[in-house]
């Protein structure tokens, strides 16, 4: 791991607000007090803002939790500094209307909105991967044009527009907010190379992360573009490594294997390439669940999607993040269980020691 981080640019440190019924004291054991609601998810965002995080991911699921766009509009008026990373499922959206929603919420937030693009199907629909990611690439292009205040003429496979005026309301900057996007399949990587600004990765071994970054840099360059890179992971930080590892074990202490499998299966992306990679990481880990030092895969036993956590004492967690920074990661989206409590621990023990700022 790198020891000199003085020359690295500031990184963005984001937290996660559990809008999709993904908050637990014990993984896989539903807790009514941690169920997604306006009040609970608002409190997580306020905790993150108070703790000094730069950004907060507002996730989206069609049939889980609460509506993300409505929540983003409300929390924009309830916060003052923290950036809001709004997840949008483009398979369920008409891009011109989505552009107007984004511009409106950006205005409400004073220019603090960013957008996480999800290449979703409509529930009940199943597009083949090439078509679904082609639709996503079209959506990103349309959003960038309209949110930059430009008239849109577009003839694609999924939408056709002739001289469509941009939204009457503009973003504070007058430009499209940064688009964050992730996906591991070839189709996903090609869509990202063409259209996103920040390419997001889920946890994996160090050499795999480095290979993904190199591949995406080459793909973007083939389109005359550059990308910034983000890393989505859970985190458990305690005063000692033994305490952190004990807490990780406690999280799983009441998990029923069948319940964990049901939780993984209910997500609409449960069969994606990225989810398969998380399963492979977990299956290849040691008997203790660690795929490499301080990278624990136990979270994935009760969660689809991001399935590993950085676990350790403050020095170890900081070193892990700085190692990723040395590899080219500039944005981190972190979370922990329960989310508000773990945000406070990270904010006190690690955040003051890392050079961070919004992208």
Task: Based on the model shown, name its key terms.
globular; alpha/beta; two-stranded antiparallel ribbon; 8-stranded parallel beta barrel
Brief account:
This protein has helices at 38-51, 68-78, 95-109, 129-147, 186-195, 206-221, 241-251, 257-265, 273-283, 314-327, 339-349; strands at 12-16, 55-58, 83-89, 113-118, 152-155, 160-164, 179-182, 198-201, 228-237, 290-292, 295-296, 309-312, 329-335. The chain has 359 residues and is an alpha/beta fold.
Q: What does the model show?
A:
The chain has eleven helices and 13 strands. The protein has 359 residues and is of the alpha/beta class. An eight-stranded parallel beta barrel has the order 1-2-3-4-7-8-9-13, surrounded by eight helices. A two-stranded antiparallel ribbon has the order 5-6. Helix 2 runs parallel beside helix 3, helix 3 packs across helix 4 and helix 5 packs across helix 6. The model has no long low-confidence stretch (mean pLDDT 92).
Give the topology:
Layout: E1 12-16, H1 38-51, E2 55-58, H2 68-78, E3 83-89, H3 95-109, E4 113-118, H4 129-147, E5 152-155, E6 160-164, E7 179-182, H5 186-195, E8 198-201, H6 206-221, E9 228-237, H7 241-251, H8 257-265, H9 273-283, E10 290-292, E11 295-296, E12 309-312, H10 314-327, E13 329-335, H11 339-349
Parallel strand pairs: 1-2, 1-13, 2-3, 3-4, 4-7, 7-8, 8-9, 9-12, 9-13
Antiparallel strand pairs: 5-6, 10-11, 11-12
Helix pairs in contact: 1-11, 2-3, 3-4, 4-5, 5-6
């Amino acid at each position: 791991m790198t020891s000199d981080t003085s020359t690295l640019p500031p990184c963005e440190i984001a937290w996660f607000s559990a809008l999709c019924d993904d908050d637990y004291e014990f993984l896989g054991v539903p807790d009514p007090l941690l169920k997604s609601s306006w009040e609970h998810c608002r409190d997580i965002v306020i905790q993150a803002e108070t703790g000094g995080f730069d950004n907060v991911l507002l996730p989206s699921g069609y049939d889980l939790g609460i509506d993300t766009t409505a929540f983003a509009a409300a929390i924009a008026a309830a916060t003052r500094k923290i950036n809001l990373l709004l997840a949008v499922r483009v398979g369920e959206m008409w891009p011109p209307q989505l552009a107007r929603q984004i511009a409106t919420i950006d205005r409400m937030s004073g220019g603090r909105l960013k957008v996480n693009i999800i290449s979703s199907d409509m529930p009940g629909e199943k597009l083949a991967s090439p078509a679904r990611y082609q639709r996503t690439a079209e959506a990103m292009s349309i959003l960038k044009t309209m949110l930059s205040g430009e008239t849109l003429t577009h003839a694609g496979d999924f939408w056709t527009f002739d001289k469509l005026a941009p939204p009457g309301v503009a973003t504070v900057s007058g430009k499209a907010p940064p688009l964050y996007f992730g996906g591991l399949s070839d189709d996903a990587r090609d869509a990202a190379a063409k259209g996103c600004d920040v390419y997001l990765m889920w946890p994996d071994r160090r050499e795999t992360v480095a290979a993904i970054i190199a591949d995406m840099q080459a793909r973007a360059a083939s389109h005359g573009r550059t990308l910034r890179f983000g890393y989505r992971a859970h985190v458990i930080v305690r005063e000692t490594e033994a305490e952190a590892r004990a807490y990780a074990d406690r999280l799983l202490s009441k998990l029923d294997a069948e319940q964990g499998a049901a939780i993984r299966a209910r997500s609409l992306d449960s069969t994606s390439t990225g989810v398969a990679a998380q399963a492979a990481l977990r299956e290849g880990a040691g008997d203790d669940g660690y795929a490499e030092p301080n990278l624990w895969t136990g979270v994935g036993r009760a969660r689809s999607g991001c399935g590993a956590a950085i676990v350790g004492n403050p020095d170890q967690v900081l070193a892990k993040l700085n190692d990723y920074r040395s590899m080219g990661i500039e944005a981190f989206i972190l979370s922990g269980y329960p989310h508000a409590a773990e945000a406070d621990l990270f904010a006190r023990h690690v955040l003051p020691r890392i050079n961070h700022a919004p992208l």
